[in-house]
Structure formats: C-alpha cells, structure tokens
Specification:
This protein is α+β, with helices and mostly antiparallel strands. It folds into 3 domains: 5-87 and 144-350, Bira Bifunctional Protein, Domain 2 (BirA Bifunctional Protein, domain 2, 2-Layer Sandwich); 90-136; 378-470, Anticodon-binding domain (Rossmann fold), CATH 3.40.50. It contains 16 helices and 23 strands. It has helices at 5-18, 40-59, 75-81, 83-86, 103-106, 110-113, 160-164, 167-173, 219-236, 284-295, 314-317, 344-355, 391-402, 416-426, 436-441, 462-470, and strands spanning 22-24, 36-38, 64-67, 88-93, 100-102, 133-136, 140-142, 152-154, 180-189, 204-214, 244-248, 260-268, 271-282, 324-326, 331-333, 336-343, 356-361, 364-369, 380-384, 408-410, 430-434, 444-448, 454-457. The strands form 7 sheets. The protein has a 7-stranded mixed beta sheet. It is globular, with a radius of gyration of 26 Å. The chain binds glycyl-adenosine-5'-phosphate. Glycyl-adenosine-5'-phosphate binds at residues 158, 160, 190, 192, 201-202, 205, 207, 209, 274-277, 339, 341-343, 345-346.
Length: 471
Amino acid sequence: MPVEQSALMEKLVALTKRRGFLFQSSEIYGGINGCWDYGPMGVELKRNVKDAWWRAMVRDRDDVVGLDSSILMHPMAWRASGHIANFADPMIDCKRCKKRYRVDEIDPAYEDTGIAPTVCPDPKCKGELTAARKFNLMFETHLGPVAESAAKTYLRPETAQGIFVNFQNVVNSTRIKVPFGIAQQGKSFRNEINPRNFTFRSREFEQMEMEFFCKPGTDDTWFEYWVGQRRQWYADLGMNMDKLRLRQHDQAKLSHYSKATTDVEYLFPFGWGELEGIANRTDYDLRQHQIGMRSVGKWQGQDLQDFPLVDEDKEEFSSGKLSYFDDEEKRRYIPFVIEPAAGADRATLAFLCDAYDEDVANNETRVVLRLHPRLAPIKVAVLPLVRKEGMPERGQAIYGDLRKRWNAMYDDSAAIGKRYRRQDEVGTPLCITIDGDTMKDGSVTVRERDSMQQQRIAADVLSRFVEEKLA
Ligand code: GAP
C-alpha cells in the first residue's frame, strides 16, 4: 500500500529507533548534530549494503582491487588535491537569531548571480544577514601534542585521496594493468553547515569509492560504462526504478577536478537527493600529487593555505613517479580516472525508504520493510509456537543449523502474531514456525514476509528451500 510521502520520513525515523536501526549520537546528552549511531539492526543492514557494493565492485571483477587507507593523511595531500583552497561552501549568518545557512540552499540563484540574500529566511526572525563567506568543510586536527601549523592536518573529507597517493604502491605490489580500479570503503568527515534529512547529510559518514584508472582517450567510454554499472547495482538490489534517476551536471557547475559528472539520485520523501556521483576526474589528482611530492621538500611547516606549490612543466609529468608505463604501447602516461563515489549511509537510507510499507488487514496495520533478502539484517527467524512440549529445544536445533549459513534469530518471547510483526518490521524475509506437527514428523511452517503465505516444509529440504528463497 503506498505510504503518504509527507508522513513517511516521520514514520521511518520512529521505526528505525524502535527497532534498533538508528539512534541519534550521544542521545543521553541531548544528541550531537549531524552524527548517527547504527543499532543492532542498522549495523547489519549497512554492512549488507557495503558487502553488496564490495562484491559487485571488487570480488566479482578481475580489474578492481581493494584498499583500506588511513583517515589521517599528510597535510600536503590536502594542499595538492585542492581541498585546502576549494573544499568550501558559501555561508551566511543571521545577526539577530544567529542561525547559520548555506547561501546556495536559501537562494539557489546565488551560484549564478553571486548576489547573496540580505534578510534571514526564517519568517519569525527576518533579521539582517552578514556578508557571504567561504567556510572550509574539513575538520582540523593536530598530530601529537603540539598545536602548531606543522602538526595540523585534517580528517579526510573523502576516501579518494587515500587511493591516489597509493597508486604506485598498488601498481608495484600487484600485477594489475591499466585499465584497473582501486576501491575503498570508509569514514569521511565534513563539517556540514546544515546537517539535515536524517542521515542524508551528516558530518561523519561512510563512503564507498572506486577510482578507475584508464588510458587517456578511453575515459569517455569508461565513464558511460560506470554510469550504467552503478545504476544497475541499485536495480539488482530491488530499488524501485521509478524513484531512481541519472542527472548530468552542467558543464559550468562541475567540481574543480571534473570533466563530466553524472549523479545517481533517489526520490526521498524530502525530494530528489544524490546517492552517488560518477565523475571523470581526468588526470587531475595524480598530477596534483606529483606536484605535491616535489613541493613537500620545500615545506617548513608554514600554513599550507598560502604555501606555493612547485610548478612543473608538462613534459616531466608523464615521466614522474605517479605516471604509468604501458607495456603494450611502450610509453608512459598519467592515467585518467573515472570515479563512482557512493555514500553507504545514503544508500542505506534510500533502501529503507524504498522498503517501508504498510498493509491493512482486519482493521490492523502491518508495518513491513520489503528489503531485498541480500540486504535484510536477519534472513530467517525461528519461532516455536509455544514454550513447551519440546518445541524450544527443536527450535534451537534448527536455529543452530541455519545460523551456520545465514544471520538467523531465535525468538520464543510473545504470542506468535506479535513475533511475526516484529520480524516484518525489521524486514526478515522468512519465519520458521515449530509446532505440534514438527514434533511428530520434523516438518515446519515457513511464512514469507511479503505475501504472508505459509508453507509446510519437510525437515530434510528446509535448508535448500531457505537458500532458494533468499537467492
Ligand atoms: N570523492 C568524490 C566525492 O567525495 P561527493 O559527491 O562529495 O564526491 C560522494 O561524495 C558521496 O558521498 C555522495 O554522493 C554521498 O552519497 C556521500 N556523501 C557526501 N557528503 C555526505 C554527507 N555530508 N553525509 C552523508 N553522505 C555524504
């Protein structure tokens, strides 16, 4: 049954708290804005999302390898990548109510006109606004106990740079050849001016990024290929394709590193929102790090904001340390990079929104998460009808068997109807009920989440039946 979109977000937030998917960070202290904790169900769901991505992007392919680089990096990496100079949003403060806004959010025309609004958008305030200022989104920190500029670095705002600085290490330590990709999942941090829409815009979040290195001139073809692959990934995990769209960025509004970008967007209850961006980053990053490597010897700890990078002529670039020797072509070049960059939290939120459903039967509303079986936190629940006549023992034995292969749950705590509802709310595809007949012939009842249909299954084929249903 379609759920009213305006009410969906509120219902989903309540469900995710009630059933242990998501909690506000530091809730007992009143919470901290833009940070979220995943509870017992949420951590399984997000892990399944990340595993599905890792499988599609790394394990099922011969041309992509994995990496897990550190969150803290040499500060010169952020100078070279352009983040110290460019990773900023325009912000504006209200002099009366002290609220802070992203200028482009309260006035989308600002990007084109450069004219900032002057009056607070809050109708109850209408105070005067300050002039617009650039606000760098990177969180600063210091390595070691000394708070001086030489020790200053940043929590990474994207995982991508950890991949670029390891390009040579991966080439030298594997037999992989261009075209190939390096994939990474991990935390990123951005001091967002206005975190909002539940986990959609957080200050601490997880990314799933892949940098695909290819020969210059083949980049447009690979770009189209990866846009198609990434769209298909959401479809394979059961996402409603009417709510997914591809949006090409205007040439004039591309990021400083990009030649082309297409976003994969989902229609959230609060409107269309970006799930991931596929960008043609050209050879920008490897070139920049090559300049960074040469500049670092001249750096004596001064503020990196104003530190001039050593300039290099173009000829030297293609023979530099971050270049690649193409065996077939017998020449060196700096590979171009196609980057599908997704958010694990945004994908998880989109799958939750997409899965939320309500059924009405016998004047009762059933809340059900119709998650794809691969994403469901619990795959199968074992429920003895009553807590006597040997049923709990038989149930425990079946549960013990099933949990060797799937994330299973055993529950004998309430009336059977109530236990079914609990499993529906967390999206468990199958419930196995142990009853009087089980004690006679070993057969069990399997109830399917979506149809609520029940089938009698013999003990010796149960495992195969579950396997087929979860495929
Ligand atoms: N390396 C490229 C890059 O970081 P991005 O579009 O800024 O590109 C990639 O980020 C993805 O990371 C986004 O599509 C989104 O899914 C996720 N993401 C970015 N900022 C986020 C935030 N504040 N909260 C949650 N997810 C975020």
